[in-house]
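Final report, results section. Input specification for complex C-07:
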Amino acid sequence: MKMKTLALAAVLTAVGMPALAQDKVQFFPSLTGRTGPVAPNATPFANGYADYMKLVNIRGGINGVKTLVEECETAYATDRGVECYERLKGKHGGATVFQPLSTGITFALTEKVAADKIPLITSGYGRSDSADGGVFKWNFPLIGHYWVAGDTVLQHIAKKEGGWDKLRGKKIAVVYHDSPFGKELLPIIEERRKMHGFEVQLLPVPAPGVEQKAIWLQVRQQRPDFVVMQTWGVMTSTALKEAVATGYPREKMFGTWWSGAEPDLKDVGQAAKGYSAVMMQHGAEPDSAVVKEILAKVHGAGQGTGPKEEVGQVLYMRGVVGAMLAVEGARAAQERFGKGKPVTGEQARWGYENLNLSQARLDSLGFKGVLRPVSTSCFDHMGSAWARVHTWDGAKFTWASDWLQADEQIIKPMVRASAERYAAEKKLTRRAGTDCQS
Amino acid sequence: MFYRENGQFKTSYRSDSQIFAIAQDRVAIGVLIAFALIGVPLLADEYLFRAILIPFLILSLAAIGLNILVGYCGQISLGTGAFMAVGAYAAYNFLVRIDGMPMLAAILLGGVCATVVGVLFGIPSLRIKGLYLAVATLAAQFFVDWAFLRISWFTNNSPSGSVSVAGLSAFGIPIDTPVEKYLFCLVLVMVFALLAKNLVRSHIGREWMAIRDMDVAASVIGIRPVYAKLTAFAVSSFIVGVAGALWGFVHLGSWEPAAFSIDRSFQLLFMIIIGGLGSIMGSFFGAAFIVILPIVLNRALPALGDLIGVHIDTALVAHTEFMVFGALIVFFLIVEPHGLARLWSIAKEKLRLWPFPH
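Structure output:
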């Protein structure tokens, strides 16, 4: 009986215990997917995010303000993600920015962050139309979104074929995750289809995507000229295994940003040779300066979050880049609102909106060869639309293309139209120019 | 000592058929309702509202709906998630397609649509029973998932297939803040719980229970199985549909079919099994167990780790949460196979004799 009372008391204090008073810290919540259907892919991201934040502290913090990361496990489930958001948003002096790493959670949080005045960075996922800062004041799909990925992957295919006109009459199959994540890719494919007259075959895969036999039999039957994959987690490796089983050439398969990382390919190994995926700027960067610094200062000091081998891999780098963008936005905000003091989420938002990462600045941070300059503005919340394609050589990724830039002429009007539609549905008015300085 | 009905005489039919026959119960429930309506809004913080209380209330409502079907009428259903989805998407369509549609009306109409779909998928129950029926209702789950993913009309042609609602209000009162949302859900849950409780005590509830206990005998004494089973499906899916609409509108705000996946159906079935089949009270217990316990475990483990100076990483917390949660389910089902509601009534029995049990 006594034990029970004690245990109960312990649980109650633990649950009700307020956050310990700490020095001034900049709090970066981390919504992780270390378990569940995307665990192999989301884990390196969370590790990279945590490791870079540790590196920032070793480097002396953000003008002396230490960063603090607290994780909350979502297992890629939207309702748990919302719970995690509510749990973390007010902790440690208030959350700076959220990066949920899930399109479903992004959709659910988009309205909540506006009410709570916390920015949301969704690099390469979430709502593509949120690149329009005039409507989505708090969303930042920094360095790219699904439509950039879709456009660049088609550009790459067109280049390989020798021009857009060569695509006329060709058949492109799109294998996608049957959820908002997967469907977000489709508008850009449709737009390009109208322009260049290729055929599109849509092949949705129900989540979590371990059951794809029927789809790849369809691929075998219809023999599309190319397959574009918008897949994530266990779905990608399943797709590759099925492609191997049905004998579809891997050279004709192209993944988007979330479908081309080591955890997807290591089980397939040599058989996946020739498979390519488009990368928004960075890929696997084991030789970059920032990776060497993390290995030396974080892992070298026994502070590493995950296994040492994954440092520099694609998704680990994505976590590092995400953390860097989060920190640099806070730094930019500090420069405006007071150096050496933690910024609030609302102030950090200004920082993300006025991000100006020049090549020299990126190089000094250790991102030479990893990223190109990123600069955002009031109406452009994306900041960069560059991408590269890498190919799996059986053991690692090698670059297979030059830098590709998504066609702004096509994407900008699409983003704007979609954002307008959202604003009309939600009865929002577009931000006026005067709001930009706030 | 305090909890006994000595001296409380029932002198009219009315007093004999009260929901809470014992005066102490009435006082307790009155205090509880007053606390939920007044105390909780004053005491709870935003996190408690948004992450715990609102999901708990909405899923309790869904569990009440499912309990009518499974617990009272004995028809096993694995399509609860589907009926929730129908409620949510139908309510969404009523709201966006009809100008000036009040939100409450949209939610109730969502429930009506869920009723229609529920009755439709309930028709097989007239011929098949038990596990076979469970498989038939599973078809509802897959069909509805498919429909909301594929037929873009249902999602108002949203390119991503995700729909969202904003600017909620009822009777001109905006429902924006967590407290307002909580009160809105609470009022609806109270109304529906009262409705459900009275239904199961009425002649129709007795018909359901007769069908559950032995359908042949029930039909021999003059209960029409068609009517009894289909009304159970109708009432159940109406309540489940309203809960689904609330889940989408009030809790998530923006949702996709994955929010009402097969996992949700199983979750609700576990709620009523653990909470107590055939008990309105049990639905609340089950919802509390399934909604709140994992979150408490998830939050308590790192804190406990800190107390003894061990850092428990996020993945381990998630895994431990699953294991402890699973172990507790097994434990409760062994200790009391009839669910937490049965434990509750045993506790009340004992309390009547306390402190002189002999």
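The longest strand of chain A covers residues 25-32. Chain A has a mean pLDDT of 87. This concludes the modelling results for the funded period.
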